[in-house]
Design goal:
It is built from twelve helices and 21 strands. The chain has 456 residues and is an alpha/beta fold. The strands form five sheets. It has a nine-stranded mixed sheet, sandwiched between helices. Strands 13-14-16-15 form a four-stranded mixed sheet. A three-stranded antiparallel sheet has the order 2-1-3, with no helix packed on it. A hairpin with a 2-residue loop joins strand 11 and strand 12. Helix 1 packs across helix 6, helix 5 packs parallel to helix 6 and helix 9 packs across helix 10. The protein is globular and about 70 Å long. 39% of the residues are buried. The model has no long low-confidence stretch (mean pLDDT 87).
Length: 456
């Protein structure tokens, strides 16, 4: 009998492209320096997941014969998470949760386990990084757990698959995918081959048993899930935890969702007993806003169907050096430079010898063009050292000619501002016809950036 021959294969960590030799640039995704070396068996037996996938190949079906019914969703009893998932957990779905170390991924999923177990759902929490006692300590901090939560500390895929098929849980948590390995794959845990094979195994289990599986994934320094990019393509939903782990707030963002919107976000606050929901993110973001200070204005961004108000701060001062310094925190740096060039050319504000700093207070990361008007007014306010009316909010996109262009969902933005006590809204003039009559708010339409600066 011929022995299995071990050869060296190179995989692209970004897209999973396979090559027999190392290449500087991947032909598949054009990424540089993304190839890693792995040893594989050329005559090894196929993995169990691959064998099942080949053996369970079905016959073609007519499109007209396929019946549809509305997906039954299981509520996690965490409204912010349900919002991001599209209304709850779909049975048989595979969900990937990524985020920086210590951001709160395991804490949130343990809270999901607590609520689902209280709903008489059978839940299995599989950890490859913590011991049973460590999980118990974190669980005691969160609260009381029911009898339907089962814990397993294991990294062998064959043992995990056997336990899942025996227990038949409704919800399974895998923490984390980078620690799982299968003996048939001759590569280290966390490698491209092991991560891809492990995801394939959990995909077959989720679809075959109709059970929902959450997979925790570590992220790289670039902010993407470690391992092959194909991992995100295989799962049904990809969620990212954002925010500074030293701060109290957390943002859960859906970047892929086959069962709902990909633009929704959930806002949480980290407390001693775990993650708590922030029901009104706008109020949370505006806490501590100064009154009567120049360079400060409130703008609004749409995250899915949710309008979120936040404060834009700008500081413009004369530079002591020949090359002024520019810095943007929370928004696109190049966009800020573009808006300052528009202010110089179209409004006549000479800021070529000034340092300029723009900050989105609260730690939000917003790149929507609708905040252009707020950034421009904040910069002009700081340059002129004139405060903007405290109860004023501004939103609109600015073009290179200095015109203020229309934006979407203008009425929802105004209603959110009114709800928090703002009495004046500066919006694009072209959007006035989209607005019905509103009480308790003065709406000012501006056609150009000059019209907006005249309001300061």
């Amino acid at each position: 009998m011929a022995k299995a021959k071990i050869t060296t294969v190179f995989y692209c960590q970004n897209c999973g492209y396979e090559s027999s030799k190392w290449m500087g640039q991947c032909p598949g995704c054009r990424e540089w320096n993304s190839f890693v070396e792995e040893k594989v068996n050329t005559k090894g037996t196929a993995s169990k997941a691959s064998q099942k996938a080949a053996g369970e190949a079905g016959k073609p079906s007519r499109l007209s014969e396929i019946t549809l019914r509305e997906e039954e969703r299981m509520s996690t009893h965490i409204k912010e998470l349900d919002r991001v998932l599209g209304g709850g957990i779909v049975p048989g779905s595979l969900i990937l949760v990524g985020g920086d170390p210590g951001i709160g991924k395991s804490t949130l999923l343990l809270q999901v386990c607590r609520h689902m177990a209280a709903d008489n759902k059978k839940v299995l929490y599989i950890s490859g990084e913590e011991s049973l006692k460590q999980i118990k300590i974190r669980a005691n901090r969160i609260g009381e757990f029911g009898e339907n939560l089962f814990l397993l500390c294991e990294t062998n895929l064959d043992t995990i698959e056997e336990n899942i098929r025996h227990l038949m849980p409704d919800i399974t948590i895998i923490d984390s995918i980078q620690t799982m390995y299968q003996d048939a794959v001759s590569a280290a845990p966390g490698s491209v081959s092991q991560v891809r094979e492990a995801t394939n195994v959990f995909l077959q289990l989720a679809k075959g048993l109709g059970a929902s599986i959450f997979i925790v994934g570590h992220v790289t320094k670039e902010g993407t899930v470690a391992g092959p990019r194909v991992l995100e393509h295989m799962v049904d939903t990809v969620l990212y935890f954002e925010g500074d782990r030293h701060a109290s707030y957390r943002i859960l963002r859906g970047v892929k969702n086959r069962f709902g919107s990909t633009n929704e976000i959930g806002v949480f606050e980290m407390k001693e007993q775990g993650l708590t929901e922030v029901a009104n993110p706008s109020e949370f973001m505006l806490e501590g806003k100064p009154e009567g200070a120049s360079g400060s204005i409130v703008s609004c961004s749409m995250e899915g169907t949710r309008p979120i108000l936040f404060e834009i701060q700008a500081l413009v001062c004369r530079s002591n050096f020949g090359f002024p310094r520019r810095q943007a925190i929370g928004t696109d740096f190049n966009r800020v430079n573009l808006l300052m060039a528009v202010l110089e050319k179209r409004v006549g504000l000479q800021m070529s010898d000034c340092d300029a700093y723009v900050n989105l207070a609260g730690g939000m990361r917003i790149v929507e063009p609708a905040i252009d008007l707020g950034i421009a007014m904040a910069v002009a306010s700081s340059f002129k050292n004139r405060p903007i009316f405290d109860r004023m909010a501004a939103f609109g996109e600015i073009g290179l000619s200095g015109e203020v262009r229309g934006i979407s969902m203008i009425e929802q933005r105004i209603q959110e501002a009114v709800k928090l006590g703002f009495t004046t809204c500066v919006i694009p003039k072209v959007c006035l016809r989209q607005i019905r009559e509103m009480k308790d708010v003065k709406i000012i339409g501006v056609a150009s950036i000059q019209d907006a600066i005249d309001l300061i």
